[in-house]
Structures
1.
Amino acid sequence: MISIKEFIEWAKASCRNIKENEKCDVNLSNEVRERYKAIPYEYFEFLKQVKQCISFSEKSWFLCEEEYNGKSDIALKWNEFEILSLEAAEDDREWKSEIENWWNRYFPILISVDNEYSFYAIDMESENGTIVYGCEPEFEEVDVVADNFMEFLQIIVNKERQL
């Protein structure tokens, strides 16, 4: 299995826009910490080491500390697809509650606007932090793509999934 350092080196060599986190620490907003209390160790370590990771096309990117804290230059918020789903629910309180509960379970880690709006997220209720993929128009319908975050990085490096 690939290490985070190996992924960073691969990303640099593959012309990805990747910036390392020089402070080697991460401080997520209260909103994120309160909502997602048990972020898997591997992803937290990734956030400690990676400040920014954007595809060559600039249409896909990992969500990092600045995105979660609302300090990024990227136009979409870290929870943009939840916001879009809530807007679609309009005044339907039951539907809104279902959407919020769903997103409480799935922590977005990567967003893409390449061809369609899509994302990868960590299933916070799974034992190992299973990674799922979802896309428009039904963001809340997802497919499992990796058993854990490190396997997800390996899948990206193997080009089984695009970054």
2.
Amino acid sequence: MAGRGSTAAGRVALVWDPALADYDLGHDHPLAPIRVELTMALIRASGLVGNGAVEVPPGSFDEAELLRMHRPAFVDTVKRLSADVTARADAEFGLGDGDTPAFPGMHPTSMLICAASQEAARQVWQGDADHAFSPAGGLHHAMPDRAAGFCIYNDPAVAIDWLLEHGAERVAYVDVDVHHGDGVEVMFADDPRVLTISLHESGRFLFPGTGHASDIGGDGAPGSAANVPLHPGTTGDVWLDAFDAVVEPLVRAFAPDVLVTQLGCDTHATDPLAHLSLTVDDDAEAYRRLHDLAHEVCGGRWVAFGGGGYQVVDVVPRAWTLAFAEMAGRHVPIDTPMQWQELAYARTGRTPPRSFTDDPVRVADELREQARRAAAESVEAVRRLVMPLHGIRVPPTVG
């Protein structure tokens, strides 16, 4: 399963350094670093590294590059708390609360995540790889002047900015995390060179409470954002229909030089922090669509990051291994490797999944219908408000 085995793949980069797992918000925090470590272990155990798929370390990244996206006062505060977590945290900068607590070394570790995501962008843009994946990245909630939603520095925004600075004329950013990709949208809301598309659980039910279908970008670039808020209980078929109706036509019309994606897998039916009803099989189908779109629209240039996902044993490693398998054009077996199962149990005490596939999700008929109607309304709003701004002629709705 997974991977477009019939399609020859070029070089694919997996950006990793063990120090990326030092992004640790605390013992009981849901963003547990073990999820990325187990992902790397499953990718390796599944035989996906080699034959053109290579691990590469993060590249160089300096503070001047960070300050292009984040305010100096905020960065100075992160550095101060990074060196002394007992120092007074300032709520103005979003640090010190339960969501994004300060931790020792958070500045250099967050810088390293930015370096990894920027390296993924560099690998693709400079032609060293067709596709690149930075599983520790995807911290899409961080704002220019504050941390938010487990995110200190906004590495997707840093990577997009690097692409623009190095010659990309248009970048499409597609965010499939269950939470609205608010930070990235805000940072590029007035930049017509960047199109941000986010499919997420509606802000009526979930953090950060933004990403309404009527939010279509800033005054300087109307149509630079498309948002598809979804109702609790949304299943994979409804989610994929919304993807097909919004992502594919908009990305085709925008004609980006590179496709950048955030692959949060907290849309899963068992995720403890959200309420959608997807499976890892649905995730794999989304990755196939993104892969095809990258080849169709922008010469295969595809940069991907991790993101949310709080079933740290059952879901995240499988979903992101399937993502990398898709990038590499490789298949994974139905069963997860026994050596990985043993490692996951030894590290967490939890019995890991034995299969790369999920059982079908059952959703009550009434909830399923509510979710279908809500998705249709969101799609129709994007068709009416955003698509005409990209030259897409939308026939009037009948009835």
3.
Amino acid sequence: MKSVYLDMCCFNRPYDDQTQPRIRLETEAKILIQESIHSGRCKLVWSAILDFECSKNPFPEHKQAIFQWRRLAQAHILATDPVVAQAQRLGALGIGQYDALHVASAMAAQADLFVTTDDRLLKRCLKAVPALNAHRPADALAILENWYEN
């Protein structure tokens, strides 16, 4: 069973402007990934940085909806010294502080997929951390569903 790390951009995607086709597509893919998590077809990885960022969400209903996913996570990554050190190394490669903590948490969990809607982060991950297996939601969904196995 594959493990999936969704960064906060993914969790917030349903609250973005759904009139834009890309945002709507990413939202649908993210929801389908969450359905796979909920049904037990894949495992969710949660982290201390997700806790922190979610706690700062100014919209109580969004915060509550996102925090509901925490209880379904089968792995909870704390901001331990090794995770923080890895995030600092990633920061030196041009990945922002919070993003680096997400990436370092996914790496610590050995997540099979790291999912983000952030183009800049994805580009930097593909260059700096090719072993991470970072994808946009639709591509991650295709991997989880084995769409291209045949």
